[in-house]
Amino acid sequence: MQTEPVPDGGRPGGPPVGDYLGCYGRVPFGGHAPRISYVSAPFGRRPAWSDPGRHLVQWAAPGTPRIPYPSERERLLLTGVVRGPVTPAWVHRLTHVLKEGRHAELARMPGALSGALVADHRVFLFRSATSEEALHYRRSRDLLRFSTDPADLLDGPGEFGREEVWRACRGDMVFVYPGIARVPPGTVVTLERGSATTAAYDPVTPLDLPPRTTMTEFAEAAWELVVEAARPYAGRGRTGILLSGGLDSAAVLAALVECGADAVAYHYATRDPLADESAYARAVCDHLGVPFVPVPTDHGAGYLDERWQFPHPYNHLAYRWLEQMAERVAQDGITFLAWGREGDRIFGPARYGLHDVLTGDLPAREKATLCRGLLTSRWELPRILRSASPRTSLLDDLVPAGGAVRPADFLTPLPGAPADVFDTAHAPQEHCANLTVWRPRGIQLCNPLGSKGLRSLAARLPHAYRLLPHQGRLITKPVLRLMLSGRFPDAVWRRHGRLWLGSPHKDYVLRHPHVFAGLLGRPDAHLVRLGVVDPERLAHVLAEPARLRLNAESLIGTAMTELFLRSDARRTPFGPRGRPACR
User: Fold this and answer.
1) Is beta strand 36-41 parallel, antiparallel or unpaired with respect to 54-60?
2) Could you give the CA distance from residue 463 to residue 475 in angstroms, rounded to a whole number?
3) Nearest to 144 by CA among 114, 116, 184, 102
4) SS3 82
5) Residue in 401, 405, 406 with CA at minimum distance from that of residue 421
């Protein structure tokens, strides 16, 4: 961390810095600005203060140098992966950019910046467009609290909405604390006494490419951008990657190898043959010459654990698998763990139809090829012709909406509950896992496919290039496949179809109905007392294997939500003299 800072618009001069694991602040407003109590502490450590001053905690890896003070009465806190060294000059520049509102310059600073600047009478909370950090705040006229952990901002247990809890059980990606605000990506929130101002500063604009760029040219541009996003991890020690066996993580690993990174691939290993992707993942590693580490996953009694402590419902599958992976990754001394998240959003289809082909910005010969492909597809000609309207997509019947995603026959009906809407700025499962699994072990998840350059490419990529109807088949992510076609054997990049990845989880539910009866069916269960779970409906579901299988995912998500409520009930938020303390 001794190299010089980067000039405006330049590239960072050093490798990524992964020492900043989160931050917390309690800042009173009004009158003379009180003294600052600032601590740089290991992740999760919350010193208790009795004085009424400004309390700030920077969670950092052991041995991390303290972030230089902008001034005697100002402090900067960071969270997530920082590109380049955190020097006094770098801190000085970031501080002045924020205080002077030079948002265009802030957007040019490299990396996925996220954190807080605490000045005398103002606090700036900032988060770049590519930052995946969750930064929350809660304010009254005279007091601001902010944290990467929403549980720090609670005044007691039970500060959630019943509808939000019901939706979490259904599987929605919903934030359950209505009294807590979040900093959206690409914004700066400026907080003063009695006021809060949000300014967008980091827009994602379409990549500047010539008109009628071909699919092959998009693939070439995509490869350059993936390599650019992976390059900082070369030469900084061993980098891990979560390798599923799919194309997204394979592309990230190929880019890391192209850059000369010392990479090792970790794979969730399952004993269920219906969900076993290890052959694909191993083929990728063998071709690239990368070590392959299968991590056995728990399919039995350890799958659910009442001792878990959650800041937010992790209403997804296989939390225990994350723990097992994190234990192995930490054992190997890995700080940065890459994965293929965002591949679907960057390269995959959201809609597709004749309108997208005919009006898309693509060469005439490719339009003709795609039209011929549509005529050989499974869609009937009248339906293809109807898709000439921009309001109609041929994928409408393939993308389930709202509550249709997960049947939940055991929940008490909640008329009027809104459908789940996919929000790219809100990933509660990933944030929860960060706080409880990865950061406590000093591991930073890295998302090269979520880079600013690739998001700009996605904004420019025509819908017609996100799906390829060819000889009766629908080929997803054709640009990604073209990008990998010269870099992997055919068996890898031509892979078509998916395994039954939910099989191990459904099998667990079928074998352990008594676990769900004990967690969710008792009168003292939190979800029963809230009127979210109907015990009679639950008993019917648990008694019939067919309904168990149908409701398996929502049963697991609901069980995880019940465990969240139990951990919430154990929360002790009050410090000395009844004030919320930085615990």
Assistant:
1) parallel
2) 13
3) 116
4) strand
5) 401
